[in-house]
Amino acid sequence: LSFSQSMVPPEALLLCSSLAVLLHPGFCQPFLRLRPSPSDNLPVKDIIEHPDPEYDPKQQDLDDRTLRKKLGSHFDPNFMSVAAPAQLNLSAWDPLQRLKGLGPLPSELRKLDLGESPYGTRLKMGKKARRKFLQWLWAYTYCPVLYTWKDLGLRFWPRYIKEGNCFSERSCSFPEGMYCKPAKSVTKTFLRWYCQGWSRQKYCTWISVQYPVISECKCSC
Predict the structure, then answer these.
(1) Is CB count within 10 Å lower at the N or C end of the chain?
(2) Coiled coil where (predicted)?
(3) 89 by DSSP, 3-state: which?
(4) pTM of the full predicted structure?
């Protein structure tokens, strides 16, 4: 999620930059950071917000019932929360110790020929040894999506999103060299407090924005 300046004409940006230097540092910041736009880099990096609390929603703008009605069916309690949720315990996750629950072996692993050696000879491997080796390989190359709750700040509603990350503490290939990387994502709709103008001419309201969340990771270069 990044901020787009596409709605601002080039001449307006030039004028704004000049005024910022002459009048006051940060004068044009809210004018240049108006609307979030999608990003190809996942997970989404932290958004640089204008520090002025004048651009925060007031207490009367945070009525839970009104905002739930405005968001409607887009409210997904599995991925968003109004109050700070308890963090998921991800530190104990170890794919090599969790062979159970990974699901069935992928078809590419089931079809893997383990009998051919680099020297052109055939290797003998029993069914039990083959099954255990493939399970180990599946666990070693498995790329889970690890979820943790992220605080988006006061200018998003709901404020908390369950964000996905790919396990990248070690290589997922054998031999090493490949790592778990995002393969697919889903978008969740949030409300964003959106302000235009400044001072007494400032107008703010809640708008709908799309927030991408990693939904699948794969072992790749």
Answers:
(1) C
(2) none
(3) coil
(4) 0.68
